[in-house]
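The pair is quoted verbatim underneath.

:::
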Amino acid sequence: MWAEKTPAGKIKFVERYEDPMTGRSRKVSCTMDKDTRTTRKAAAQILDAEIQKRLTAAPSVDLDLTLSVLVDLYREDQKQNVKLSTYSRNYFACKRLIDILGGDTLVSRLNAGYVRKQFNSTGDANGTLNERLARLKALMRWGYKNDYIDDIRWLDKLDKAPDPEKKERLQEKFLEGSELKKLLAGMSVPQWQLLTAFLALSGLRVGEAIALELKDVDTHSRMIHVSKTWDTNNEIATTAKTLSSVRDVYMQDELLDLCRKIRAFTLSENIRNGCKSTLFFCDLNGEHIDYYAYNKYLRENTLRILGRRITPHALRHTHVALMAEAHVDLEVISRRLGHRTSKVTRDIYYHVTKQAQARANESIRDIRLI
């Protein structure tokens, strides 16, 4: 460190350091009123702190970085850049990775063989292992992009395991129109019956439906304004899942009549229970309805009435099937659902349209025209 006198008569203390990004010499400085033993000591501390700050800010690969530390860094970044529901899901997914691979394991020594061996030792189903592999790859790629890891080529050696259970029959993902009518007729809880019909006729995600307010359902313009979703785990309404999820859903006549019934039901329940809720669907206290209670009711009643369990999300798929059967264009359905593309949506659409074509062919097979 050296001192220079400024034109104003003060003392500027200067120190050099090497920039790790360029290898070149850089300078830092601070100005004091005078040059004494005390000011020199204070200046040295200030300059050392500034140099450390600049060195720390420069990204560099740490060969001693452990998996636990990498996960901590990843979580801090996610706090700033993802929704709370996504953060919570990934938090526990990463916790399980630490349990399986070891928190003290050096990230620089991870390899495909070790990961495969540790994953297989859990005895978990291939579907579960594939989900963990997806999270591990996301974590490692994040570390690579942020210069905490210098080589992740070994990830390419890890492929998803065969998962025959996932290859369920496409028909199990949605209800036929006749099945939906049978289900609705057999449901004894009015609110759950209305919600089930609403999801099937609108195509909304169940979280989007739970988050709806009365003002979002405009029966005059025949539009449902979707801009938020209900985070069940954290019990808060958050922004929509994606940018394309923010949308207006047009009410066809059937859905318009249903929305009027739901509004009348909600308002009458508010009066009966002595509350004044702004929600389109609400519980006895005027608060957001319980997703888990509805999910349990739906699974139990579909098993009782139809002989198989379905989830609320299957009603979104049901909407695709019903619209396809009504010959609505796939692109129109996709915009209505709030996403640009979906393999499941596309598969269901083509499955239903092929069925319709097969029925049309069957109807004219034996016709004799001459």
